[in-house]
Amino acid sequence: MDYKYSIEKFLEHKGWKKSKCRWCNTDFFYKKYNNSCGSFNCEGGYKFLNYPSRKDFLETGIIRKIIKKNFEKIHFFEENPILIKRNNERTLFASAAGQIYDKLIYEREHFEDILRKIVFQPVIRLQDHEQIADLEGISSSFITAGSEIWNSPIKEHHQSLDKWFDIFSELGILVSNFNLKYKPDINYWQDKKVPSESLKINYRGLEIGIANFFYDINITNKKTTFSDINIGLERLAWAINKTDSYFDSIGPIECILTCTQEKIDALRTLTLMAAAGVVPGTKNHGQKFRILSQKLSTPLDIFPFYELVDYYYNQWSQYIDLTYDNKRTLKIILTEVERMKKQSLIDKYKLNIDFKKDFTEMLKNQKLLRRIRGKTRWD
């Protein structure tokens, strides 16, 4: 079956027109004419912030309830998210809502009928974490809301996409301000080579999500299909509320105003990692933990660890069952950050100190060498 043609005919029926982006020369679909595909680079920034926002601020918890209610009307059932920490899988951490079907994809389980699930999956994606200090709209962990259909007929994929447009309208976003950027792809899932037809859902510079239709998935002497539409919940909240910062919807607002986004993001992700059972180490999950911990390890830096870890722990626990309680989570994070602070001072001042000594005692007892106007002085 020509799935690209089917998707184009569905969009045409719904009033979308096809064009080619002036800047990246990629096919896209629009309702209100725009010579750009709507991506950040081609749009020249986050132009959606110029649109009027809702009068009332919508929190992610309210948005979640609205999404769930809409999909339950078309016979979707909410599925619990998968564990954050992955072992012997293609990713170290949960990174997409569609991973709820990994057991079916890799044939550890079998299901012949159509499965319709809505899932709110916490995910960790670290590939862009270095950009967080310089660019809004990026975080290393977030919630992805996914409408997932296993053994999906193409018409059900269309129905699911259409439902998302209804939800955007209900939340106060004009669908005519969206552009859908076409992206065919070949995906490699271990020993499986899986083609897909995808539409990136762009809202005047902000990519809110992606609608994937995977097909020709080899499953025990047959081929099946998989509808996978993922929407970033925090980005959707930003698109609705149009606040100055993406992190305003994440909070807490008093820290957003006084702390850097890079540190807030690092601690939020570390909270999810530690609560999910990740411990610092030199390989795999533990190595990623240490990379983020470095962002919080400036010596003598004052940072509200206790308040923020408690806040983010409660935030994550609304979506997923966590392995450790908030006290143990805090201890794992603080122990690693304190270790890194000690190491930073040892490296800087060439100190010789036992790691087991208290950090405060080290500052009291060690003589730090300073150079002032070419002379050496001991404090």
Quick tags:
379 residues; BirA Bifunctional Protein, domain 2; two-stranded antiparallel sheet; globular; 12 helices; 35% helix; single chain
Instruction: Give me the CATH superfamily of the largest domain.
Output: Bira Bifunctional Protein, Domain 2
The arrangement of helices and strands along the chain is HEEHHEHEEHEEEEHHHHHHHEE
**Total of domains:** 2
Main β sheet profile: 9 strands, mixed
Helix content: 25-40%
Stated plainly, the CATH topology of the largest domain is called BirA Bifunctional Protein, domain 2
Number of E-type strands: 11
Extract low-pLDDT stretches: 367-379
Spatial order of the strands forming the largest sheet: 1-2-6-7-8-9-5-4-3
CATH-scheme architecture of the largest domain: 2-Layer Sandwich
Query: If you compute it from the alpha carbons, what radius of gyration comes out, rounded to the nearest whole angstrom?
Result: 24 Å
Envelope shape = globular
The level 1 CATH classification of the largest domain is Alpha Beta
Number of continuous helical runs: 12
| Distance between the first and last residues' Cα | 78 Å
Structural class: alpha+beta
Which strand-content bin applies to the residues? 15-25%
Report the average pLDDT across residues.
91
